[in-house]
Amino acid sequence: MTNQNHLWKTNKLICGDNLEELAKLPKESVDLIYIDPPFFSHKQDEQGRWYADVLPVDVWEIPAVINVSKERVGYPTQKPEALLRKIIEASSNKGDVVADFFCGCGTAIAIAQQLGRRWVGTDISPTAIKIIQKRLKQFLGVVEGVNYVVIGMPTTVEEVKKLEPFEFQNWVVIDKMRANLNRKKVGDMGLDGYYPRSVLTEEAGIQVKQSDGVGRNVVDNFETALKRAGYKKGYIVAFSFSKGAYEEVARIKNKEGLEIKLITIEELLTKKKPII
Ligand SMILES: C[S@@+](CC[C@H](N)C(=O)[O-])C[C@H]1O[C@@H](n2cnc3c(N)ncnc32)[C@H](O)[C@@H]1O
Asked: Are residues 87 and 69 located together in one domain of the fold?
């Protein structure tokens, strides 16, 4: 922020509401600090908290988003809403466009929306875009098609082939299968995802292969993984399967009573509902 006002050069923390200079400053140059019931201030905000005006300093103390924060959405680099609120309020007006080209889980987007700004967010990760969509809907009731459009999510087999392995797995398990990721890297017994037991679903395992012509050996290994996990059902998702894979699935069903379904990416792209 640039400001020619001489008060910016004093490098002093000015506290209290009796300073005439404060009244002369542009609103975005003045911060609030919250205090216990008044000892030098008689100002209250709309929520009844006591505050004093101070000139901002060059260090903002904003608590990080920790595991138990209400605003946490589970994205590793999530920034605090208070930080983005401060930046957006100080640098834009209602109706302006806020753009974040590496928007992650969309903290800037969510705050821009709350503050009446228009916004553009881009991120290379489809997982991030999905998290933002969920965040906007869950916390702000803002939905795709009504309040915003989404451009560039993978919609063809060729585009899905280009996804990074981690993105591919998330896209299959969370987005398309509506299942849970298996987050345990050790001892995951060959399962990338799973359906927990619920009223609608029985327990089942999911394995994801970002390859073509997945064969009999993959089905055999998956059978072992299902048995170890105690599941009677499972899904293998890949671009295509060999004839031997389908034969092995039939053999396992007859001999072991285990139900394994082979699902192609093409099917996931064309089916409107999750495959369970
Ligand atoms: C530090 S994070 C952003 C965090 C964000 N401020 C928040 O609150 O969640 C950086 C983001 O940049 C994205 N990214 C990395 N390379 C990119 C690229 N070439 N184009 C667009 N996004 C990219 C990553 O996927 C990541 O989500």
From this structure: yes
pLDDT digit string, tens, across residues 65-112: 988 888 999 888 999 999 999 999 989 999 999 999 999 999 999 999
Same domain, 205 and 89: no
Given 98, 121, 151, the domain boundary residue is: 151
Ligand 1 touching residue 268 (CB < 6 A): no
> Is any atom of ligand 1 closer than 6 Å to the C-beta of 152?
no
- Return the closest-CA partner of residue 133 out of 144, 119, 121: 144
Q: What is the CATH number of the domain that holds 169?
A: 3.40.1340
- The residue whose CA has the least distance to atom 1 of ligand 1 is 77
Q: How confident is the model at residue 213 (pLDDT cuts 50, 70, 90)?
A: very high
Question: 81: Cβ below 6 Å to ligand 1?
Answer: no
Predicted confidence (pLDDT) per residue in 132-151, tens digit: 999 999 999 999 989 999 99
**Ligand 1 centroid distance, CA of 124 (Å):** 7
